[in-house]
Design brief:
This protein is α/β, with parallel strands linked by helices. The protein is built from 15 helices and eight strands.
């Protein structure tokens, strides 16, 4: 659907792609990509985008964001704080990354207190360039709330390269709770993307490096895993935590009840493998009865393919409207209410959730 939409709407290709039209497609696309109409800034305006967010390491200088702000281009391109390189013990070079974080912030990141202060300062630097959200790609949704002496000792083991698998997971769990604490202070919206066994293909990983494919969904426990964090902050109405999942079996059993109950929780749209017509419809069918529409955040996509942005949003809107039309046809929703919900799912909820 994304390809067909892009071929027709962006490149004007109306003949079906086949072996006999392959050269036509290749030549047409190659030619048009060389024109001013396909420069990224022109496409940004053509797509009628209001906000585009990047995902950035705490070690990133954000020089590109500064350059955009200082230019005459008035687009809203915002950084997103993705702390994995300095919070995940399995991330290659973690200790060196934490030391670099200390240099950048002039904090002693060999200590637990200095490390947390460095993260707070970095989040502030991101906020000054328009950042409104953080993003956490942990293997699980586990959280923890350790006493300060235990957290200090765990941190010492991590930067010394000594943690076993249990301690690695415990440290990630503790850092989710620490990030929630920081979000309550600085207002950044928290996104959690658990449940992916990343780099599953060992040969691919060894030849090309991390995060280049072979990411496989895994079962995810949210009820028990999030409890330490929710015990601390679950009732905070000023905190927003958006949960994404690759585990569809958790939609109605865990995620919808949690989001329906805790003021701080919202459900992100279907992600990755489920970012598809059938996946989107299953999401609406499984979460709406319990969580409602307004404990979700509408649709935001995480594409790396710029030209797919209009297609993905078009697909999401059609699926949501089809779901709403069914409710109207069954007299479970009044038509004028469905029209308002459609607008909220398309536009208003995502702006509210991400504080844009």
């Amino acid at each position: 659907m994304w390809l067909d939409f892009s071929f027709q709407e962006l490149f004007g290709l109306e003949r079906r792609l086949s072996d006999s039209t392959a050269d036509l497609y290749f030549d047409t696309i190659s030619e048009k990509l060389r024109t001013p109409e396909f420069l990224p800034r022109t496409l940004y305006d053509r797509f009628n985008l209001e906000v585009l967010a990047t995902t950035d390491s705490p070690l990133d200088s954000l020089a590109d964001h500064k350059a955009i702000r200082e230019s005459d281009w008035k687009a809203k391109v915002l950084p997103t704080f993705r702390p994995d390189p300095v919070v995940d013990p399995e991330f290659a070079g973690l200790a060196e990354n934490i030391a670099k974080l200390g240099e950048n912030t002039r904090e002693d990141t060999s200590t637990w207190v200095g490390y947390l202060n460095a993260l707070r300062k970095t989040r502030l630097r991101f906020r000054e360039l328009g950042c409104t959200a953080t993003d956490h790609g942990h293997p699980t949704a586990r959280t923890a709330n350790l006493p300060a002496p235990e957290a200090t000792e765990l941190f010492r083991r991590v930067i010394a390269g000594e943690p076993d698998a249990h301690q690695q997971e415990l440290f990630r769990a503790q850092m989710l709770t620490e990030m929630a604490r920081m979000s309550l202070d600085d207002g950044l919206v928290m996104q959690i993307h658990p449940g992916s066994a990343r780099n599953h293909n060992r040969k691919l990983y060894e030849q090309y490096g991390r995060d280049l494919g072979a990411d496989i969904p895994t079962p995810t426990n949210y009820v028990d895993a999030l409890r330490p964090l929710l015990d601390q902050f679950g009732n905070e109405s000023n905190l927003t935590i958006i949960l994404f999942t690759l585990d569809e079996s958790a939609y109605s059993r865990e995620l919808a009840p949690l989001a329906g109950h805790y003021p701080c929780l919202r459900l992100g749209p279907p992600w990755w493998f489920h970012d598809s017509p059938e996946g989107m419809m299953r999401f609406r069918e499984l979460v709406t009865e319990t969580a409602g529409f307004y404990n979700t955040v509408g649709f935001n996509d995480d594409t790396r393919a710029f030209l797919s942005i209009p297609a993905r949003h078009d697909t999401a809107r059609r699926i949501d409207c089809a779901f709403l039309a069914k409710l109207v046809a069954e007299h479970r929703l009044v038509e004028d209410e469905a029209l308002q919900v459609a607008q909220d799912l398309t536009y208003n909820l995502v702006k509210k959730a991400y504080r844009l």
